[in-house]
Specification:
- This protein has about 160 residues and is mainly alpha-helical.
- It is about 85% helix and about 0% strand.
- It has helices at about 5-40, 45-70, 75-95, 105-130, 135-160.
- Helix 1 packs antiparallel against helix 2 (about 45-70) and helix 2 runs antiparallel to helix 3.
- The mean pLDDT is about 85.
C-alpha cells in the first residue's frame, strides 16, 4: 500500500477537484436560474425549452466523452462523461417530475449536488492521504456512493408518482 502520492499526481488531483467543485457550484446556480424562470408564468416555456436543450446537449456530451475516452484509452474522460450523465438525469427529473409550482425536484437536485461536492472532498482527502489504495476503504467509498445514487434515484422516482 502506497502512503503518498507524487507531487505531480497531487497537483493533477487538485486541479480535477477544483474543476469538479466549480462545475458543481455553477450547475447549482444554473438550476437556481431555471427554477426562477419556471416560477414566472411569462418565462416558464423558455425554462422548459432550456431544460430540453440542456438535456440533449448533456446526453450528447456524455456520448462524446465516452467515445473519446475509449478512443484514447484513458479513464480520465469518464469523469466528464459522468458529469454529463448527471446533468441529463437531473434535468429529466426537473422536466418530468415538476408539477406547477413544485420545488421538490429542485430540492432533490440541490441535495444531490451537495452530496456530490462532499463526496468529491472525501475522495480527495482519502487519495492524498494514500488511504484510497486500501481495498476496504475503496469498497466502502464506492458502496456509499452507490447507496447515495440509489437513494437519489428512489427519491426522484417516488416524487414522480
Amino acid at each position: 500500500m502506497r502512503n503518498k502520492i507524487s507531487r505531480q499526481e497531487k497537483e493533477r488531483l487538485d486541479n480535477k477537484i477544483v474543476f469538479f467543485s466549480s462545475v458543481t457550484f455553477l450547475y447549482a446556480l444554473l438550476l437556481l436560474f431555471i427554477q426562477r424562470m419556471s416560477a414566472n408564468s411569462m418565462t416558464v416555456n423558455g425554462a422548459l425549452a432550456f431544460i430540453e436543450i440542456l438535456r440533449w446537449v448533456a446526453l450528447g456530451g456524455a456520448m462524446l466523452c465516452a467515445a473519446w475516452s475509449a478512443y484514447k484509452e484513458k479513464k480520465g474522460f469518464f469523469l466528464y462523461c459522468a458529469m454529463c450523465i448527471y446533468v441529463f438525469f437531473s434535468t429529466t427529473v426537473i422536466r418530468y417530475c415538476t408539477s406547477r409550482g413544485s420545488a421538490r425536484p429542485y430540492l432533490i437536485n440541490y441535495g444531490a449536488l451537495a452530496v456530490v461536492f462532499v463526496m468529491a472532498q472525501i475522495y480527495y482527502a482519502l487519495k492524498v492521504r494514500g488511504k484510497f489504495d486500501n481495498k476496504v476503504v475503496r469498497g466502502l467509498f464506492l458502496g456509499a456512493s452507490a447507496l447515495l445514487i440509489a437513494l437519489f434515484a428512489a427519491v426522484s422516482i417516488y416524487h414522480r408518482f
